[in-house]
Design a protein that fits this description.
single chain; alpha/beta; inorganic pyrophosphatase (n-terminal core); Diaminopimelate Epimerase, Chain A, domain 1; 2 domains; 6-stranded mixed beta sheet; 5-stranded parallel beta sheet; 11 strands; binds adenosine monophosphate; binds manganese (II) ion; Oligoribo/pAp-PDE_c-di-AMP_PDE; nucleic acid binding; DDH_dom; DHH family phosphoesterase
Length: about 325
């Protein structure tokens, strides 16, 4: 079955890139999430079905909850790979820096296809398919598959559904469009079990994760206007909970979801002297632009950056800037859709 989708001309060029290159290095951003892994693994399956050889590399271990994804066990660390690659595709990554150490595997004159949906994407590829209307990079990969006229098998569909469901927050965020739901329905036709996937990657909490939630909710705070709210996660809290990096994901939704809040933020001490800041906004504030000012990036409604300094200093600096932006805009929900 084929879906009628809005395939812009870049999709044809991206499909040609898939067709015309072999021995490909496939990369995604460091600390990969559901969309990064779903899109790269979905594409890996497509490329294999075209008879291509692929090498999957990431700086970080694959989070446990995503290890069920078909071919997730194929990931190597950059140190485990020799030489450089002349043909490379990067997925779900707004700039080269986000590829981390894996960048070292890209040959100086490589053909590099950049497949992404971040508004802050700097078009770092030699070819770029940056579709800002896509809710997830998995949506772009699905459309490349349509352009290639490949009928999706269950493994590919499982990967693509995972990114679609995680980047839309379970089809709840403002990036949930008619096209997203049509593609999701199509993936179910290919045999995907939506409940199983969402239960694994979104609903299930590890025990350390719940302990962390208990502690972190104690730090929940908001400004005088009630439009900015935040939580703080120190290294000590994470250690006491017995948690790891991926347990922090999603905590920013607590401040975001408080009634009256426009911008929700989490401040997370990642290593001493560095704070990972996650931003979420509800209706109008472009948090991607704020994150970019602090050296990060993302989307209008979800963005992040890592800022040098101790937690209190970073918090003061970031909150001061967010306050300025919130004061300058009309944050009433009716002001936008
Ligand atoms: P997070 O807050 O880490 O869940 O990220 C929210 C969104 O912002 C995701 O789409 C990320 O890819 C993007 N993002 C997070 N951190 C950074 C960063 N340091 N640089 C660029 N984009 C980022
Ligand atoms: Mn991502
Ligand atoms: Mn994404």
């Amino acid at each position: 079955m084929s879906l009628k989708l809005n395939l812009k001309p870049e999709y044809k060029s991206a499909a040609d890139f898939f067709r015309n290159h072999d021995n490909l290095l496939l990369l995604v951003h460091e600390k990969p999430d559901g969309d990064a892994l779903g899109s790269v693994l979905g594409a890996a399956h497509l490329l294999q079905s075209l008879g291509k050889t692929v090498t999957l590399v990431n700086d970080d271990p694959i989070p446990d909850k995503f290890r069920f994804l078909p071919m997730a066990d194929r990931f190597l660390l950059p140190e485990e790979v020799e030489g450089t690659f002349a043909n490379v595709i990067a997925f779900d990554c707004g700039d080269r820096k986000r590829l981390g150490r894996s960048q070292g595997l890209i040959a100086a004159d490589a053909n590099l296809l950049n497949v992404d949906h971040h508004v802050t994407n700097d078009h770092f590829g030699t070819e770029n398919i940056v579709d800002l209307e896509a809710a997830a990079t998995c949506q772009i990969v699905f459309k490349i598959a349509q352009e290639l006229r490949i009928e999706l098998d269950l493994d590919t569909a499982t990967c693509l559904y995972t990114g679609l469901v995680t980047d839309t927050g379970g089809f709840r965020y403002s990036n949930t469009t008619e096209e997203v739901l049509l593609i999701a329905a199509h993936l179910l036709t290919a045999g995907v079990s939506p409940y199983q996937i969402v239960d694994r990657v979104m609903e299930t909490l590890t025990w350390p994760q719940v302990q962390l939630i208990r502690t972190v909710l104690d730090t929940l705070d908001r400004d005088e206007s009630g439009m900015i709210s935040w939580v703080t996660i120190t290294r000590d809290m994470l250690e006491r909970a017995g948690g790891c990096d991926e347990d922090v994901e999603g905590l920013v939704n607590y401040p975001r979801n408080v009634e009256g809040v426009e911008v929700g933020i989490s401040f997370r001490e990642s290593v001493p002297g560095k704070v990972k800041v996650s931003f979420r906004s509800k209706y109008v504030v472009d948090v991607g632009a704020i994150a970019l000012e602090f050296g990060g990036g993302g989307h209008a409604r979800a963005a992040g950056c890592t800022v040098d300094g101790d937690v209190d200093t970073v918090k003061d600096r970031v909150l001061a800037r967010v306050r300025e932006v919130v004061t300058a805009v009309d944050t009433k929900p009716e002001a936008t859709q």
